[in-house]
Predict the 3D structure of the following.
Amino acid sequence: MNNNTTKDSNYPQDLILEETKEQREFMEKIVLDFGHKFIHNLEQDKVYHGHPDVHGDQLHEFEIDAHTQSLEELLDTFDRNVLKTGLNPASGGHLGYIPGGGLYSSALGDFLAALTNRYAGVFYASPGAVKMENALIKWAGELIGYDQGFGGNLTSGGSIANLIALTCARHHGKTLFNEMSKSIIYCSPQAHHSIFKAIQIIGMDSYAIHKIPLDNAFKLSVAHLEQQIEVDLKAGLNPFLVIANAGSTDVGAIDPIEQVSAICKKHSIWFHVDAAYGGFFALTKTGRDKLKGLQHADSIILDPHKGLFLPYGSGIVLVKKLKHLTNTFKFDASYMQDSYKMDRISPADMSPELSKHFRGLRMWLPLKLYGPQAFANYLDEKLVLTSYLYTALLKLNFHVVCEPELTVVAFRYEANIHELGEINRINKFILKTLLDDGRIFLSSTMIDDKFTLRAALLSFRTHKNHIDLLLDLLANSLDTYSKRS
Ligand SMILES: Cc1ncc(COP(=O)(O)O)c(C=O)c1O
């Protein structure tokens, strides 16, 4: 402890919040040992622990009062009450929803970001942090094919990235049409629900949304889109925003980006692409071929906490013309005047956030340590594993809703079953069997009103052994069901 401090009633009696080097080293060792044990046990530990206390209230262990505890005791509380409940998204057995990552190098970046606490929202306060985040935006923009003059922001995730993009689109629409009450948004019924939230937040009601029918591959039908725009124009409405998926959540479908962008261009409509899940497949050859045309989007979002395996809390919004971001989000305040002398655009000018987490370091560190090709290789592995799973599911007589475009497989068992209730019952049974076992986590959805299972392969820790285990569990579950009935 620092003994040179004046003893004064205005000062803390001891500087407990400013640990000595020895104390810091002691704490680091405990935390790092805990972290290494967690990683070491990932393969044996369950990916799904259930919700043992779903109605109970174990909060007393978390409650803050005058009572303090040792770091070891606190980590034990964390382990039992957080890590041993619900889902473990750091596990390779996590094939539900859209898996996130949890790279160790990213965690180290976060540690340093928190420790050094750079103020990454404003260039004046931390030019280095802002330049690092700008370099990441430049890299992501060039990856999707943007040329020059684009801008972007590192967000907390895809939902906020969608909100930022749609706010820009509405701001642009307002300058075009003066009033927005007759303005129409077109999207797929498979758009992520964060899109519908964002539409509500930007003050547009659901009557402004025209959902366009899908083709057999769950992609937005270009013919229907064109038709609907023509109908709306004739009715005196303002078609102002089209939203496409580059990897839908339910089935991983990629809408026909090039054709949709041509329609938007023809009618001067803002074109937004939600590539939260699919965007980073642009690192792979397969992905690049499937994602052609992304560079035409006026705005696009990607989630590094999906396709780059970062821990949760990392999204990106890119806008083709930087001025649309700054026109929407740049506000001045007299207490910020010193920072304006720099005449540099800051992240705070492109987002609703002012003070923000220095998100750049958690993404920059792994990309610089291992290089983008390492990430491409991992994504390629997931693509190969997906076609392996697809073929094996067909052999087990599962109905696969559509051929997987990227790494999501939506499937259900309905062989020789004609009654909807029975289809739903057997697939619910399969999911329950998997969750009870706990080694592989799948989630479900409703497609054509039928209970449908989904496997999404995106965790960097998912390998062939996990897919083989899933296939064994599915076969056993079918076997048990048939013996039961
Ligand atoms: C296609 C798509 N868009 C947007 C989101 C929302 O992203 P986030 O959960 O990072 O807010 C998701 C989440 O899974 C998604 O799959």
In short: The domain at 118-357 is CATH 3.40.640.10 (Aspartate Aminotransferase; domain 2). Confidence is low (pLDDT under 50) at residues 1-6. Residues 372-395 form the longest helix (24 residues).
